[in-house]
Amino acid sequence: MSLNIYNSFTNEMEEFKPRKDAPVKMYVCGQTVYDYMHVGHARTYTFFDILKRYLEFLGHSVMVVINITDVNDKINDRAEKENRSPWEVAEEFSIVNLEDFDSLGIEADAYPRASEYIEEIIDHIEKLEEEGFAYEAKGDVFFDVRKFDKYGELSNQRLEDMRTEREDEVISTDKKRNPEDFVLWRAREGSSHSPVWSSPWGEGVPGWHIECSVMALSLLGDRIDIHGGGSDLLFPHHENEIAQVEGVTGDKWVDFWMHTGMVHIEGEKMSKSLGNIVSAREVLEEYGPGAIRLMMAGSHYREPMDFSRARAEEALKNYQKLKNTVKGLKAEIKTSNTIPDKLGEEDLDFLETLFELKTKFIEAMNDDFNTPQALKYFYEIESLSNSYLSKDPKKPVMKRFLRIMLELGSIIGIFEEEKIEEGESRKVDSLLRKILGLREELRKEEKYEIADSIRDKIEEAGIEVEDSDRGPRWKI
């Protein structure tokens, strides 16, 4: 079964064929760190994390880079408003957003900051000048889009229909050769709320688009497998990234461009003007990462997703059912001591159904990461638990059932809390064994008062201790 992915560059489904003997390289555009991560950001990062997990399930090594944009006017504006330095603001929200990544179970191999790559950015702009793609105008440096023949291919636009500047990057068009040209370097005087760097063109700051291109090039090289982000970044950001990189390398840079759909809140567009921005931290605290990841996976990544409390509650119920099934299986396996000589027909039929549903889950994921369909099969697998466990469950079958549940859950990125709880439980068990072992030594030495004091302290913590001929036992 081959993996097919929708490529935003060609607008077609294509078979994913990574290079041999090399990790899959993936770059995902990160946040400008001037505020909290919202559910729209979380949806994008969660999807690309699921993508990474699935590629690893297929046996690929995956290298993921998610950048941190810490040089930007939005940071400067907040710093000025709050009478702080931009670095304070950027550091605060860099830490906050990395904490949210951790809560969501999202991991990247690197989180580069734009401020750490100024020298490389300047060097890349100079190369674009040498190649004839960039020009300086009164301290600003622009990319001449009419010199780059492929400009507009990603967004499928004609030059005359374009408007490339974002609201925070508007520069007087009298400096430009063409209205569509975009900024690589902006001349600026420094202040306490606006850091600047020296460059061959004078003091200034890099443009937003060049930051991502250079960080991706520096860490992943001049050919990467997947470049992703929200659909709002397709133009102009990703269009400009292609021009900036291929203008220097002369070769194709990205094999697959992938974009996630926008998130609406209770049927409305999410925006500050409507006052309906929902932070990732808020929903994580209310529903937990397992439920949020299930909710995110409940919509196809390319489609818009509507966040609502009702959907979050439904996802939480589904997560709790899955979690309880896993706990129930573990408990049954732990208490089951017999291994049958052979499996009955009912056991074999059950296993066959499990394998069929797992295969359908994989087929759905191979179809451009169709997580809604994959979850349907996952829920079907979970629903089999009651009927099988209520009869005469066999330990080997239950172990296989549990492995499949954990395997598919790991792709979606749920049950991470279970792993943490299990790890903590093992630590508690180890600590209790050591404490009660010490207590046993004290009893052998007839130091009963100290031994009883230790037992009393343990029981005050809600742990019941029972002495037996085979040694102390406990239960929480």
From TrEMBL:
Full protein name: Cysteine--tRNA ligase
The Cysteinyl-tRNA synthetase class Ia DALR domain covers which part of the protein?
360-423
**Enzyme Commission identifier(s):** 6.1.1.16
User: Per the UniProt entry, what species is this protein from, by scientific name?
Assistant: candidate division MSBL1 archaeon SCGC-AAA259B11
Instruction: Tell me what gene encodes this.
Output: cysS
Catalysed reactions, semicolon-separated: tRNA(Cys) + L-cysteine + ATP = L-cysteinyl-tRNA(Cys) + AMP + diphosphate
The source's superkingdom equals Archaea
Position of motif 'KMSKS' region?
A: 269-273
The taxonomy runs:
Archaea, Methanobacteriati, Methanobacteriota, candidate division MSBL1
- RNA-binding listed as a keyword: no
